[in-house]
């Protein structure tokens, strides 16, 4: 058996796919108070996501020089304060992605695509 010395160990690179980061961000977003769903950024993306049943619909991730930017396209519960939900969402997504990936999230952008009444008062 050959022994490996410290000089023979060559460190490698770890690459995390943007789709993996999108999965983390999507899960954090859907667990946030006031968020009732995710939406595609435009009609063409909406049709493509519906046809492919994309589980990361509504999340776009950009990785540039190990800095992560996340764009979220969400549907918020009608009657909640949009600014409060958006700030909570930003904090939750940033925390989960940074904790899991170990790279800084420089920006989380929340795009409110609509409001939905989930519990109508009868």
What does this structure look like?
Strands 1, 2, 3 and 4 form a four-stranded mixed sheet that branches. Helix 1 crosses helix 3. The longest helix has 20 residues, at 82-101. Helix 3 links the parallel strand 3 (67-77) and strand 4 (105-116). The chain has a single domain, classed as Cation efflux protein, cytoplasmic domain (Alpha-Beta Plaits, 2-Layer Sandwich). It is an alpha+beta fold and 122 residues long. It has helices at residues 18-30, 43-52, 82-101; strands at 35-38, 59-64, 67-77, 105-116.
Strand content: 25-35%
Backbone CA Rg: 18 Å
Helix content: 25-40%
Task: Characterize the largest beta sheet: strand count, sense, and whether it forms a barrel.
Answer: 4 strands, mixed
How is the secondary structure organized here?
Blueprint: H1 18-30, E1 35-38, H2 43-52, E2 59-64, E3 67-77, H3 82-101, E4 105-116
Parallel strand pairs: 3-4
Antiparallel strand pairs: 1-3, 2-3
Helix pairs in contact: 1-3
